[in-house]
User: Which sequence fits this backbone?
């Protein structure tokens, strides 16, 4: 069973999230009202996913995400926020968050986002991903040779990478390429390993940096 830790400073938000997730068969193993507690509980409980609010008192969601990632904990962080224009969303994603979700998302969108996060994907609204990529590219030199690690990918892996960069899910990639989902997951794992990437977000940024897009 998928396990989730909720991190939000509002009791009502946590209660609503718990109800939605538990009705979908997802186990909520703990709740935190601030980032410091979220980090401590993530280390103790080792949930599959931490649903992390960005704005919390004391240690905020960005710093908590960074600490969880730096501690190399097995859980993945899914960011929750009220505004998709929140500049902290970008900071949290670059700190290692696996994805992003608005608090006004539907119950099904929440459940799907958690499931995609567990599956190693990066649930994220397309406009947010586009802005994140733009900000990332603005910080880099205008030109640079393609790194050897990118050239080490096979033709099929580059094809999969291009689709990942376009925001296509693993299931959709499998359908487009007429292969099994297990095959796509194997390709994704190989891509992450060859590119020495921590997660799907890093891979997508690298793909856009060097023009490997579908």
Assistant:
């Amino acid at each position: 069973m998928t396990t989730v830790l909720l991190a939000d400073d509002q009791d009502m938000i946590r209660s609503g999230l718990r109800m939605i997730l538990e009705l979908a068969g997802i186990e909520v193993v703990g709740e935190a009202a601030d980032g410091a507690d979220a980090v401590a509980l993530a280390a103790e409980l080792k949930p599959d996913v931490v649903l992390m609010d960005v704005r919390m008192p004391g240690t905020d969601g960005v710093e908590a995400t960074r600490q969880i990632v730096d501690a190399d904990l097995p859980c993945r962080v899914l960011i929750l926020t009220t505004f998709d224009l929140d500049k902290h969303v970008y900071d949290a994603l670059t700190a290692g968050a696996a994805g992003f979700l608005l608090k006004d998302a539907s119950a099904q969108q929440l459940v799907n986002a958690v499931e995609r996060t567990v599956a190693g994907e990066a649930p994220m609204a397309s406009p947010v991903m586009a802005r994140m990529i733009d900000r990332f590219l603005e910080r880099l030199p205008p030109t640079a040779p393609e790194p050897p690690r990118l050239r080490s990918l096979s033709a099929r892996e580059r094809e999969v990478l291009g689709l990942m960069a376009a925001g296509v899910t693993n299931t959709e990639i499998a359908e487009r390429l007429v292969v099994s989902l297990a095959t796509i997951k194997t390709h994704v794992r190989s891509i992450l390993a060859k590119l020495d990437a921590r997660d799907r977000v890093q891979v997508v940024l690298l793909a856009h940096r060097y023009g490997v897009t579908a």
